[in-house]
Amino acid sequence: MVVDDEQDITLLFKQKFRKEIRQKKVEFSFVFSAEDALNCLDNQENHLILILADINMPGMNGLELLKIIKDSYPDIKVFMITAYGDDYNYQTAIQCGADDYLTKPIKFEHLKEKINELI
């Protein structure tokens, strides 16, 4: 699941993972707020193994979402994605249980390697 308030992220991920999606190696769902992500998690029927969450979102931010996910769904891996490469956000994300921290622009080949390690 990709959680980002920027809706154009959907097209970007679909382009970058076109081959993997076509081969059914990965499947993405996209939500545009932390609140929507929690609703999906509460109603999930599929086995979700990874959430890619933006930090800076209106309403509940990605770090708040991270805390809830790690408390309620500890088996789900969470990678934080942010435009902020500062040490404070990095340390906060790691302390809250982030499994990885990626800065924008996303290096998709690197992300693909990390996803392949999970599946």
From TrEMBL:
GO terms for biological process: phosphorelay signal transduction system. It comes from Crocosphaera chwakensis CCY0110. PROSITE patterns: RESPONSE_REGULATORY. The modification 4-aspartylphosphate is found at D54. InterPro entries: Bact_response_regulator (IPR050595), CheY-like_superfamily (IPR011006), Sig_transdc_resp-reg_receiver (IPR001789). Residues 1-119 form the Response regulatory domain. Transmembrane segments: none annotated. It comes from the Bacteria. This is Two-component response regulator. Keywords: Phosphoprotein. Pfam families: Response_reg. Gene3D superfamilies: 3.40.50.2300. The keyword Electron transport does not apply. The keyword Phosphoprotein applies.
